[in-house]
Amino acid sequence: MGIESVKLPGGLSRTSGIGGAMKTTPKRLLFVDDDPNILDILERMIAPYAAGWETHFSLGADEAIALVEQVDFDVVVSDARMPEKDGFWLLKTLQEAERTRSIPVIILTGDCEPSLKRQALELGATDLLNKPICREDLLGRLRSALRLKGYQDELAENILSLEDKVVERTQALETSHREILWRLAKACEYRDDQTGHHVVRVALYSRAIAIGLGMPPHFVEDIFLTSPLHDIGKIAIPDRVFLKPGSLTLDEVKVMQSHCEIGSRLLLEQPKALEALHWTEEVQHPKRDLADENPFIRMASRIALSHHEKWDGTGYPNGLVGEDIPVESRIVALADVFDALVSERAYKPAFPVERSRQIIAEEAGSHFDPAMCRIFEEQIAEIERIRVQFIEPPAEVNIESAR
Ligand SMILES: [Fe+2]
User: Fold this and answer.
1) Do 108 and 120 meet the contact criterion of CB atoms below 8 Å apart?
2) Disulfide engineering: 104 pairs with which of 124, 145, 295, 350, CB 3.0-4.6 Å?
3) Separation of 124 CA from ligand 1 center, angstroms?
4) Nearest Cα to Cα of residue 16 among 29, 33, 25
5) Residue 169 maps to a domain
6) Residue 21 is part of a domain; what is its CATH number?
7) Alpha helices of 71-191 — where are they, by DSSP H?
8) Is residue 185 part of a domain?
9) Nearest Cα to Cα of residue 63 among 96, 25, 95, 89
10) Cα(367) to centroid(ligand 1), Å
11) What residue numbers bound the domain in which 221 lies?
């Protein structure tokens, strides 16, 4: 076991290290005292027991802090009384910094200094040692402090590893969640194969408008993911109405319009089967509200319910007026209508973009939120780019081949 002493710049402190295999993972100890004789005594006391320890010595608190900034110490032993900055200043400084807060600190005090001892404990000292120092006491306290630091380090490492796993699992869950939403939206498209990339374009138009509105990033992402589900309720409309060629009767129109409430309920209501999934022997009917746990579902449900509301209150199903209509629904309403205008439908040809923009502008303040129409115009270059990129496939092309 070889101990080497190294003079630090300025010659005010010494560093000792243990040679051999243990040097790869040494425990680092720092002793601070303004009296070099005390430091010599401390060094001699621990030398025969210091296998695996890397010992550093400092003659002052300032110098000790300079060392702490360079070395990750496992324990600091400091005299309480030192000229200028004392052991309490050192203790307080270590406690204030995130990186050094967990370093155990042992404070050396005289036997008859209870007030100093109390002060040291209040400032966060791990332990106290009386002067004159007894070798056995010193070694016992050092081993306890090192054990404590070892547990703290292990715990911190486990927490970091756990945090990494939580982030990883959360990302996997979110990816799976997004995929399911998109697949659900696509499944709804199969009902009406003329719409092609309609839901993709509505999602991208909605995102572009939300960005233009200056909405926060989480909103922009949420509307991109949930807007494709705006017509999910159409899945429950009977074929005789949904696929009927020509105009609908008033009753049939009402059936068609019910897709808003059906879609909202479909997204919001707790499926019985899922309740059963969470039953256990102890808890047969746990109350878990999926919508409470999932902001996507809440937004998707609001969009499904109110994307046919109109700014002037003449829309359906609830005749909401102005800003009573959720902002995400006002965005999707515009995106949905614009896409219908520029796309070919069974009942109409595709309108040119300029004509469609004109119709949107004419409906500002009646059908649409006027502010939303202004943003739409500001974003028109991006909206046109999306329209061209996801243009409707020719009617004779099977929709599946375009996916
Ligand atoms: Fe709709």
Assistant:
1) no
2) 145
3) 64
4) 29
5) no
6) 3.40.50.2300
7) 87-96, 114-122, 135-189
8) no
9) 89
10) 14
11) 190-402
**How many domains does the chain fold into?**
2
Q: Are residues 74 and 220 in the same domain?
A: no
What does the block give as tokens for 144?
């306890």
Q: What separation in Å is there between the alpha carbon of 215 and the centre of ligand 1?
A: 23
* Domain end point (choices 161, 180, 213): 161
pLDDT tens string, the chain, 403 residues long: the values are 333 333 343 334 444 443 344 445 789 999 999 999 999 999 999 988 888 899 999 999 999 999 999 999 999 999 998 998 999 999 999 999 999 999 999 999 876 777 888 888 899 899 989 888 899 999 999 999 999 999 999 998 999 999 999 999 988 888 887 888 888 887 877 776 555 588 889 999 999 999 999 999 999 999 999 999 999 999 899 989 988 888 899 999 999 999 999 999 988 887 666 666 666 655 555 555 555 567 788 999 999 999 999 999 999 999 999 999 999 999 999 999 999 999 887 778 889 999 999 999 999 999 999 999 999 999 999 999 999 988 766 554 443 433 3
Q: Are residues 258 and 308 in the same domain?
A: yes
d(CA 200, CA 216): 21
Domain identity same for 337 and 273: yes
DSSP label at 317?
A: S
Q: Quick check: is 184 in a domain?
A: no
Going from the Cα of 231 to the center of ligand 1, the distance in angstroms, rounded, reads: 5
- The question of whether 92 is a catalytic residue gets the answer no
Interhelix angle for 198-212 vs 327-342, to 10°? Answer: 130
Environment class of 347 (CB within 10 Å of its CB; exposed 0-12, middle 13-18, buried 19+)? exposed
Domain presence at residue 27? yes
What is the reported pTM? 0.60
- Give the active site residue among 149, 234, 254, 348: 234
Residue 150 and residue 228 in one domain: no
